[in-house]
């Protein structure tokens, strides 16, 4: 029953806001206690097993219904050229035009 009483004090999984004079007051963040460090302090770390990654060059991809093989169909130079934006031959100078505002005197 003590857990039901503890849950009654929690709002959305955390304690309600601290209020003073009807306004919320910021409080310092509580750092975690040493409990989490003690549980992981055994030195035994669990590692998930994932399948080894295959090389990108050997992967087959389906593009528009056709099986492609990456670098063989599209060379790295062609892809780089396609993705680069062409640079202008000359830079345009910024010309400041005077702003004459016609106002009555």
From TrEMBL:
Q: Name one GO molecular function term.
A: death domain binding
Instruction: Output the Pfam families linked to this UniProt entry.
Output: DAP (PF15228)
Q: Which GO terms describe its biological process?
A: apoptotic signaling pathway; cellular response to amino acid starvation; negative regulation of autophagy
Q: What is this protein called?
A: Death-associated protein 1
Q: In what ranges is there compositional bias, type Basic and acidic residues?
A: 84-97
Species in which this protein is naturally found: Paralvinella palmiformis
For region Disordered, the annotated ranges are 1-59, 83-105
Coiled-coil zones: none
